[in-house]
Each structure stands twice: as structure tokens, then as C-alpha cells.
Amino acid sequence: SCYVFTQKVKPGREGSVVVDEMVTWFDDKDLEVVARTYSLSYDAAVYDFKVKMEVQMTKFGDLTVPALIRYVGNWKAITKKRERGVFTATLSDFNAGN
Questions:
Q1: pLDDT tens, 17-32?
Q2: Which residues pair with 6 in a beta bridge?
């Protein structure tokens, strides 16, 4: 079980901030971050972007590291074509390296 903390942009402030919404799940026993979702966007004269990400965390030794990243986004710069990206990255077999 987790505590869930949600941050949202105030109504009427859309377009003036980058983080539209961020939701964080904290383990109710040790308050470690379990997962987080992000909704980011910005629209300026020379570029714009809209991105959604989900990050699920895991423990590696004493560290909390990402185990899963889901990304959906698009962006455009004034002299370039719009680019879109969708991917899921699963991270595992961490190595401390000596």
C-alpha cells in the first residue's frame, strides 16, 4: 500500500508552466518512491512539446532506481518537422561495477 501525492497546475495557468501534473506513489512503510507519472507540456513561439511519462522504481542495494519507463511524447522546433516518440524501457540486471 502507498501514499499518493498529486500535484496539478492551477486552473488558468496552463501553458505558463512545464509540469501539468505529477503523481508520486510513496511506500507507506519507508516513504520510498515506488512510482511516478509526469505530464509535461509547453508552447512557446519557437518550440512546443507534450510528454507523458510513467516511471516505476525498484531497489538496487541501498539505491532506488528506475525499473520501468514508459514515454509518449511529441515536440516541434520552429525549423524542424514535428517528432513523435513512444517507447517502454525495462531496466534490470543492475551491476555496481567496481
A1: 788 999 999 999 999 9
A2: 23
